[in-house]
């Protein structure tokens, strides 16, 4: 019997099938339409380690882990594929009202890496994981607070997903554009990017940035605010590592006003920053943690909404027939996700990929900083672990952002060289000017040298 790939031995037929029928994510399809300037959609075919090949045979170094920071352990992991196969042959699916062996064992393994956390709710995407968290907060408002404390705070520049509720909690205006009106009760707090802090920058900025959150709480009324939802490190909003003093003060504020602290680890989770989770870099204890992308490194769809036992206990109430968490995620019942995730975690542990992320991340930061000394278009380098960003500017003195078209020209130039990098785009008006780097946690120094060399060549051409 022919396999899927045996049947796809005519690249042109595949490209035309894609052109005619596939609606791709996040891109304008007009250039694919027939005409004198028609281009082909890019079809990715194979991946091994840190490298991928498209349908034309072109090889790339992948510096963004599958385009959206997902393939943390790299491509071609046979042991994950085998675990996935074994699980779905044994029992591919059962609705989440019951348990499965992969689900139970993965939850136990995950919680062991998250001191203070207790329960895992399965779904299948980061957006959905965050939706579950928002619903938990709203139900707690009714069950525990008499309908009060229903508002959810989110941060400017942070991103939490694509659904209407997640966009309501999204701090990237261009991603939100044309999708309103939004869900009421989501309230924005200021970002914490010192490079763009203006006169507030300087000593003590971290605490002042956190105090700005308290000002919003006091303005809204502490008895109306139920949760604060933040990325540990702002991802697509510009790779923003919160400054010293910020996270400690944020946690104090949440405890002071009995506000649940929800950390969105969809990007940073599973080793991206050099620890299992980004929040663990800052010594804080969240009430809710959401995760997706790196949980199974893209080998299967899985996301998790993880809570403390305190949060879970609020839903154990047999005196109220509507008191339990009345939610379902159909494909949260697939066994393939937790089975793949178990193997993924084992690989991270056995190969010390947390350590490699920290070591190679420090080297990548060093190499990008050295490039900044040679290349005036780079205004600042920032990041943690294998999660680094380089903000591009037209003028270092004024910090005028480099035009988005030029930033995207750098990305396109790198792709022509066989290196796929990312950049903030169509997210924040006037500030889509940060190059994004998140190679798989298996990256070597040679890989990093190839990535940085491509960026340098591209910057010279764009300049």
Summarize the structure.
This protein is of the alpha/beta class and 463 residues long.
CATH H-level superfamily of the largest domain: Type I PLP-dependent aspartate aminotransferase-like (Major domain)
SS-based structural class? alpha/beta
- The averaged pLDDT comes out at 96
Regions with pLDDT < 50 over 5+ consecutive residues?
Answer: none
For the largest sheet, list the strands in their spatial order: 4-10-9-8-7-5-6
**CATH fold category name of the largest domain:** Aspartate Aminotransferase, domain 2
Question: Regarding CATH, which class of the largest domain?
Answer: Alpha Beta
The residue fraction in helices comes out at 25-40%
The helix tally amounts to 15
Described by strand count, sense and barrel closure, the largest sheet is:
7 strands, mixed
CA-based shape: globular
Query: How many domains, in number, for the residues?
Result: 2
Intertermini distance: 53 Å
Radius of gyration: 22 Å
Total count of strands: 16
Estimated share of beta-strand residues: 15-25%
The CATH architecture of the largest domain can be given as 3-Layer(aba) Sandwich
Protein name: Adenosylmethionine-8-amino-7-oxononanoate aminotransferase
Cofactor: pyridoxal 5'-phosphate
Family: Belongs to the class-III pyridoxal-phosphate-dependent aminotransferase family.
EC number: 2.6.1.77
């Amino acid at each position: 019997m022919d396999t899927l790939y045996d049947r796809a031995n005519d690249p042109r037929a595949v490209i035309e099938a894609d052109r005619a029928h596939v609606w791709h994510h996040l891109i304008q399809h007009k250039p694919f339409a027939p005409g004198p300037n028609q281009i082909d959609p890019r079809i990715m075919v194979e991946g091994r380690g840190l490298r991928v090949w498209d349908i034309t045979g072109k090889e790339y170094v992948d510096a963004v882990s599958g385009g959206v920071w997902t393939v943390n352990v790299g491509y071609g992991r046979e042991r994950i594929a085998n675990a996935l196969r074994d699980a779905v042959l044994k029992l591919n699916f059962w609705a989440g009202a019951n348990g499965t062996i992969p689900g139970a064992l993965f939850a136990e393994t995950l919680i062991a890496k998250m001191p203070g956390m207790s329960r895992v709710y399965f779904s299948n995407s980061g957006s959905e994981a965050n939706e579950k968290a928002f619903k938990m907060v709203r139900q707690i408002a009714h069950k525990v607070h008499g309908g009060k404390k229903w508002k959810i705070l989110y941060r400017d520049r942070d991103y939490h997903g694509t659904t209407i509720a997640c966009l309501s909690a999204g701090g990237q205006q261009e991603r939100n554009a044309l999708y309103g009106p939004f869900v009421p009760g989501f309230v924005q707090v200021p970002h914490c990017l010192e490079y763009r802090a203006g006169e507030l920058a300087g000593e003590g900025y971290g605490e002042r940035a956190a105090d700005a959150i308290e000002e919003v709480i006091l303005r809204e009324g502490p008895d109306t605010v139920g949760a604060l939802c933040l990325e540990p490190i702002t991802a697509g909003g510009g790779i923003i590592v919160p400054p010293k003093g910020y996270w400690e003060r944020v946690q104090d504020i949440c405890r002071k006003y009995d506000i649940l602290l929800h950390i969105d680890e969809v990007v940073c989770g599973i080793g991206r920053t050099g620890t299992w989770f980004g929040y663990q870099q800052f010594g804080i204890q969240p009430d809710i943690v959401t995760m997706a992308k790196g949980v199974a490194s893209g080998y299967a769809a899985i996301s998790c909404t993880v809570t403390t036992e305190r949060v879970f206990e609020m839903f154990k109430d047999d005196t109220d027939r509507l008191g339990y968490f009345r939610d379902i995620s159909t494909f949260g019942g697939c066994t393939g996700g937790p089975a793949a995730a178990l193997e993924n975690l084992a690989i991270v542990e056995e190969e010390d990929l947390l350590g490699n992320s920290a070591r190679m991340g420090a080297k990548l930061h060093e190499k990008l900083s050295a490039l900044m000394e040679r290349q005036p278009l780079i205004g600042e380098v920032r990041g943690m672990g294998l999660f680094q960003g380089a903000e591009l500017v037209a003028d270092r003195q004024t910090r005028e952002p480099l035009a988005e078209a030029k930033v995207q020209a750098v990305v396109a130039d790198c792709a022509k060289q066989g290196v796929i990098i990312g950049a903030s785009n169509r997210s924040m008006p006037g500030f889509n000017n940060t190059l994004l780097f998140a190679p798989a946690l298996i990256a070597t120094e040679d890989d990093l040298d190839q990535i940085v060399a491509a960026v340098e060549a591209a910057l010279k051409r764009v300049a």
